[in-house]
Specification:
single chain, mainly beta, four-stranded antiparallel sheet, about 120 residues, seven-stranded mixed sheet
């Protein structure tokens, strides 16, 4: 079992930046990718982006392209979500999740971290 702990959320003004972290511990062998998702009040959870655990290839939702970037620190088993040019509509709880080799969906989730962007 893997444990995921997100951190780095907070309150920021529109146009500002935040960097979220997702630290993975426990079982990490077999991770295929790490994804970031978000859920705003009253809305469904949506995909933000992902990074291949070994390949480091990234993929982003259209609404964050050019503003957000995902990276990984091997030594720390930590994935980062750098968020720039934040907008009030980026306000949400942000979650990281693990996709396993051979899996078809994201199976393990962190507890989430709140990001609030004020106008």
């Amino acid at each position: 079992q893997v444990q995921l702990v997100e951190s780095g959320g907070g309150l920021v003004q529109a146009g500002g930046s935040l960097r979220l972290s997702c630290a993975a511990s426990g079982r990490t062998n077999g991770i295929y990718s790490m994804g970031w998702f978000r859920q705003a009040p009253g809305k469904e959870r949506e995909f933000v982006g992902r990074i291949g655990w070994s390949s480091r290839m990234t993929y982003y939702a259209d609404f964050v392209k050019g503003r957000f970037a995902i990276s990984r620190d091997n030594a720390k088993n930590t994935v980062y979500l750098q968020m720039n040019s934040l907008k009030p509509e980026d306000t949400a709880v942000y979650y990281c999740a693990v996709e396993w080799l051979g899996g078809v969906e994201y199976d393990d989730w962190g507890q989430g971290t709140q990001v609030t962007v004020s106008s």
